[in-house]
UniProtKB/TrEMBL annotation:
Topology within the bilayer: Multi-pass membrane protein
Keyword Membrane among UniProt keywords: yes
Cell compartments where the protein resides: Cell inner membrane
Start and end residues of each Cytochrome c assembly protein domain: 88-295
Name of protein: Cytochrome c-type biogenesis protein CcmF
GO BP terms, alphabetized: cytochrome complex assembly
Family according to the record: Belongs to the CcmF/CycK/Ccl1/NrfE/CcsA family.
């Protein structure tokens, strides 16, 4: 069945040629039939690249070791899920996934963009064609995932054991759907600058694409954080790793873009800024792809790749982003100013929101690239860790988050600040009271730590209760007419529900991050059978050992027993040490004891034999309070994005007629 692999390679070549043709038709073509040709080519390119990707997955499923990528990252004993996910578990396969999503998004412009002006849609397809040609060309000529071996080995090298995990199987597709989704916004930003069409209709049409990409990014980042939490065995979920930051920066840019686009759609303002953010979001997405493949970073998240391919990706990044921003620099001065608004208005709070998020984005950008620049320019090795981000990023975001409930109750154009303060006073008082009660249960090592804890709780509860007050405002809720207000729930627009879920989810996340970050307890101790260790109110006892075979590994594990302060058995965690013969690697498998909000977390290290001949294991035992909220909050935020997309006013492809051209003459 080797001819199937050749079909995949031919389809990859065809996708590259079609992307070039798509861009060329738009650039050189004139006439009424050009749009039809470009649209047809975009659909054909998407089908071609999809077939190539399907062929790669099929090669992994049937363990075709004549394909280099399969031989290096798969094994016959791997479970089916990890055979499939192995298709994007390498640099080459992940680039093909990127290209597949990119061309499919281009096809979606064709299928969902019929309500747009033909010139704008055609130019956006041209930009998508150029992007497709660049990335498919890079994949085909320098990172071909379907490259063949002259002689196929009898067995493959298997996938890194750390990557054989359900959360990580879905993490890259979700992340790439967000990364590459920003390419549509980028294409329409460039098309609008060329076309001279930058109005409310443009913002209304671009906003759903940004929201779709933002939702996927939120899910992807959450899955990655959850994987790092329970798979890597260090007890944390976010380390400000440069590759983690590479996914966080486009999320921040997309968040600012969504709020800026709202102002542009409602008030025909912030046109230049919204377009700039549209260019910036995809630029950071491409930067993320570059950083994990450039060889500049050493991270568990990065691909071990020849730096020469990183140079090629850097060239694509510079040409694409440089071209977009150069065009912006030429056109931005001529953009007509939009509607005016008072200093006290929703527009003003959203502008402040954008400025603060942008400042936070700059702090992450600086902390991520500064060590790389120091290494490249001065050969000086250094790292920027959590203390920097907590000191710089944290205060900026606190102010931004405090503004969120205020902004949602502000009126457009001109607002009554006194009235807004009066409506939010009760919600703020409840938030402060809840935070004060919560802080009674925390005794920090320093006064500063206790102050940070209290402020963090206030921000989290403020987001939740302030957003609840926004819902009450939408329902015109009154205590003496509560039943009537509840009947109005079905009349609240889905976009409003989306905003409410997103903001409450953000508050839930903040509460989880603050409590877990300050109250987490851990202990590490060498333990033999029968030993016990105490952590807070919990006691962990090492009861027995067991061995069990897995699908493609052999495991040795420990049976532990956890009791609370009253002597009640809470759970029996069973952490493991898994040996993978195919790759000759050992991987620790964490055991979690779930409670409604907290986790008890146990992980075993390699066994050691003491001088007395007794075998012991290094065991790490964590108590992570409210950690569940850290992962539940972002899922609520993503649900908010989905609900907003279900609102007919924000569905992909829905567009109302807007004013032509917003450029001075």
């Amino acid at each position: 069945m080797t001819h199937i692999n050749e079909i995949g390679t031919y389809c990859l070549v065809l996708a590259f040629c079609l992307s070039l043709t798509q861009a060329g038709v738009v650039i050189a073509g004139k006439g009424r039939g050009i749009a039809r040709y470009a649209e047809g080519i975009s659909l054909a390119g998407a089908v071609s690249i999809f077939i190539a990707f399907a062929v790669l997955i099929f090669a992994f499923i049937r363990s075709d070791f004549s394909v280099v990528n399969v031989a290096e990252h798969s094994h016959t004993d791997k479970p089916l899920l990890y055979k499939i996910s192995g298709a994007w578990g390498s640099h080459e396969g992940s680039m093909l996934l990127w290209c597949t999503i990119l061309l499919v998004y281009g096809a979606m412009i064709t299928l969902r963009g019929q309500g747009l002006p033909e010139g704008l849609r055609l130019k956006a397809l041209g930009v998508q064609g150029l992007l497709g040609a660049a990335f498919v060309g890079f994949t085909l000529f320098s990172s071909n995932p379907l490259a063949r071996l002259a002689e196929a080995p009898l067995q493959g090298q298997s996938l890194n054991p750390a990557l054989q995990d359900p959360a990580l199987a879905f993490h890259p597709p979700m992340l790439y759907l967000g990364y590459v989704g920003m390419s549509v916004v980028f294409s329409f930003a460039v098309a609008a600058l060329i076309e001279g069409r930058l109005d409310r209709a443009w913002a209304r049409w671009v906003r759903p694409w940004a929201l779709l990409a933002w939702s996927f990014l939120t899910i992807g980042i959450t899955l990655g954080a959850f994987w790092a939490y329970y798979e890597l065995g260090w007890g944390g979920w976010w380390a400000w790793d440069p590759v983690e930051n590479a996914s966080f920066m486009p999320w921040l840019a997309a968040t600012a873009l969504l709020h800026s686009a709202i102002v542009m759609e409602k008030r025909d303002s912030l046109k230049a800024w919204t377009v700039f953010l549209g260019l910036l979001a995809f630029t950071f997405s491409m930067m993320g792809a570059f950083l994990v493949r450039s060889g500049l970073l050493t991270s568990v998240h990065s691909f071990a790749v020849d730096p020469q391919r990183g140079i090629l990706l850097a060239a694509i990044l510079l040409l694409t982003a440089g071209g977009g921003f150069a065009l912006f620099a030429l056109r931005a001065p001529s953009l007509a100013p939009g509607g005016l608004f008072a200093a006290v208005s929703r527009e003003t709070t959203l502008v402040l929101n954008n400025l603060l998020i942008s400042a936070a984005l700059c702090s992450v950008f600086l902390g991520t690239l500064y060590p790389i620049l120091m290494q490249a320019l001065f050969d000086k090795t250094m790292s920027v860790g959590a203390p920097y981000y907590l000191a710089v990023f944290g205060p900026i975001m606190i102010v931004a988050l405090l503004l969120v409930p205020v902004s949602t109750l502000m009126s457009w154009k001109r607002a009554d600040l006194k009235g807004v303060v009066q409506r939010l006073a009760a919600a703020f008082a409840v938030a402060v009271l809840a935070a004060a009660v919560g802080s009674l249960f925390y005794k920090g090592p320093t006064f500063l730590s206790e102050a940070e804890y209290l402020i963090g709780l206030i921000v989290g509860f403020w987001l939740i209760f302030g957003t609840a007050r926004t819902l009450m405002q939408a329902l015109n809720f009154r205590l003496n007419a509560a039943v009537k207000a509840l009947r109005r729930l079905s009349g609240v627009p889905l976009a409003t529900w989306g905003m409410i879920f997103a903001h409450i989810g953000l508050g839930v996340f903040v509460l989880g991050a603050v409590v877990e970050g300050h109250q987490r307890l851990s202990v590490m101790q060498g333990m033999s059978l029968g030993d016990s260790v105490k952590l807070g109110q919990y006691e962990l006892r090492f009861q027995s050992l067991y061995q069990t075979p897995g699908a493609n590994y052999d495991a040795q594990g420990g049976v532990f027993e956890v009791k609370d302060g009253l002597g009640r058995i809470i759970c029996q965690p069973k952490p493991q040490r898994r040996f993978y013969p195919a790759s000759n690697q050992v991987q620790s498998k964490v055991a979690l004891c779930f409670t409604p909000l907290d986790d008890l977390y146990v992980v075993m290290a390699e066994p050691q034999t003491g001088v007395d001949g007794v075998m012991s294991w290094q065991v790490r035992f964590f108590y992570n309070p409210w950690v569940r909220l850290i992962f539940f909050g972002p899922l609520l935020m993503a649900l908010g994005g989905v609900l907003s997309l279900c609102d007919r006013r924000l569905r992909l492809g829905i567009v109302r007629k807007g004013r032509k051209l917003a450029v001075k003459t």
